[in-house]
Amino acid sequence: GHTYDLSVAGDLNVGVLYISAVTSISVYGIVLAGWSSNNKYATLGGIRATAQMISYELSLGLAFIGPVMMAGSLSLAKIVETQSKIGWFAIFQPIGFVIFLIAALAEINRSPFDMPEAEQELTAGYHVEYSGMKFALFMLTEYTKMIVVSGIAATLFLGGYQFPFITD
């Protein structure tokens, strides 16, 4: 028989730290998008969006601690492996899972945390001066972030690539 590795990237020993570092880079993109459009409303919108994202990244990072402590490792493969042995961490850490979901909802600017985008207001937040393909790239990154956050939630709390109730 063949063995297939179902992880996307190679297994890092510090995979959870890598994920938290890479996801926090988007803060720079938002504040620079508001500032570079040379509009005071866009600059204020970028600062407002950045403040919200930074404040929820703290609780998102603290929600990572439960699965890391239960697995005893920062490796994503080890976290998934531990969940296949003892069960999903969402069952053992329901408060951490709910905190992660709420913080992730705020990170991707979904309702009710969509105030930094200001879609209902006259000024559209940090992307007030963007239209066409530049605006499409902002939306593409937002929806890509939704997929990535869902993958992180599945990996840390819902067993990762291991299917439930199926043993070897």
Written description of the protein model:
This protein has 168 residues and is mainly α. The protein has helices spanning 15-23, 26-36, 40-63, 65-71, 76-86, 89-92, 94-107, 133-157. The chain is elongated and about 55 Å long.
Structural class per helix/strand content?
Answer: mainly alpha
Question: What is the radius of gyration computed over CA atoms, rounded to a whole number of angstroms?
Answer: 18 Å
**How is the quaternary structure best described?**
single chain
- Which series of helices and strands comes N to C? HHHHHHHH
Point out poorly predicted stretches: none
Largest sheet at a glance?
none
**Fraction in beta strands:** under 5%
Shape: elongated
- Count the beta strands: 0
Q: What is the terminal-to-terminal distance?
A: 13 Å
- Count helical runs: 8
Helix share, percent: 55-70%
Calculate the mean pLDDT score and round it.
84
Q: Can you lay out the helices and strands and say which pair or pack?
A:
Blueprint: H1 15-23, H2 26-36, H3 40-63, H4 65-71, H5 76-86, H6 89-92, H7 94-107, H8 133-157
Using brief descriptors, characterize the structure shown.
168 residues; single chain; mainly alpha
